[in-house]
Design brief:
The protein has about 220 residues and is mainly α. The protein has eight helices and four strands, in the order αββααααββααα. α2 packs across α5 and α4 packs across α5.
Length: about 220
């Protein structure tokens, strides 16, 4: 009987350890906290659609009267699937997407679930949500749709650590030179994780922007 109890105890402890370790390696849902739909919007959507939801048409439409065009259910579905240059936010929980869609139709919503990702996963998602509409990570990536009519193409950002340190990268994000918007709404932690993600990508492009000669402070280079 003691042996059976001992084996069962070991199995339970082992299971807790295995699942606890797996959870730490993947997405973590913290059920002890809450975050408002407005906060989730600011974190995930405002860099494109603006703090006041005015957008920058036609590339980034205004969301001020989105409830006149789409139902809450339709907004929720769009957040999950993404469309055109808008990325998918499927990495967020249903509770979080519901809170965002509720906020957009004028409700005061909260999510009891806060999805926290590993730093590199979060950096990748933030890059897709905030940067990928203009910037490539590699030279052979498809041309982002948002820059097809511009006279110069934004920098390829893979291997950013080879050409710029984090402080310089952060300054550019905050400054928003040329037609690039400012990303002061992102936390320093988020910017650091975008930089860390980009540093993991091997890029063989010579990003020496000192030779661009166009007078623009943004790191734009013709490819």
């Amino acid at each position: 009987m003691k042996n059976i109890f001992l084996i069962s105890s070991i199995a339970i402890v082992s299971t807790i350890f295995i699942f606890g370790f797996t959870q730490k390696q993947g997405s973590i849902n913290n059920l002890q906290s809450a975050i408002s739909g407005e906060q989730l919007y600011q974190k995930n959507c405002s860099s494109c659609h603006g703090i006041e939801r005015n957008g920058n048409p036609p590339t980034f439409p205004s969301l001020v009267f989105i409830d006149k065009k789409m139902s809450r259910t339709e907004i929720n579905s769009l957040l999950k699937t993404g469309r055109n240059i808008m990325p998918s936010f499927a990495h967020l929980s249903q509770d979080e997407r519901t809170a965002i869609s509720g906020f957009l139709v004028g409700e005061k919503t909260k999510s009891k679930t806060i999805t926290e990702l590993r730093p590199l996963e979060n950096g990748k998602n933030l890059f897709v949500a905030n940067c990928a509409s203009c910037h490539k990570t590699k030279a052979d990536d498809p041309q982002p749709l948002d820059v097809q009519n511009y006279g110069m193409r934004p920098a390829i950002l893979g291997g950013i650590d080879k050409t710029r340190n984090f402080e310089s990268f952060e300054n550019i994000l905050n400054m928003g030179p040329c037609y690039m918007p400012s990303f002061t709404n992102l936390e320093k932690k988020d910017k650091n994780e975008i930089y860390a993600y980009l540093a993991t990508i091997k890029s063989f492009v010579n990003n020496d922007y000192r030779r661009r000669g166009n007078g623009c402070r943004m790191n734009c280079a013709n490819r």
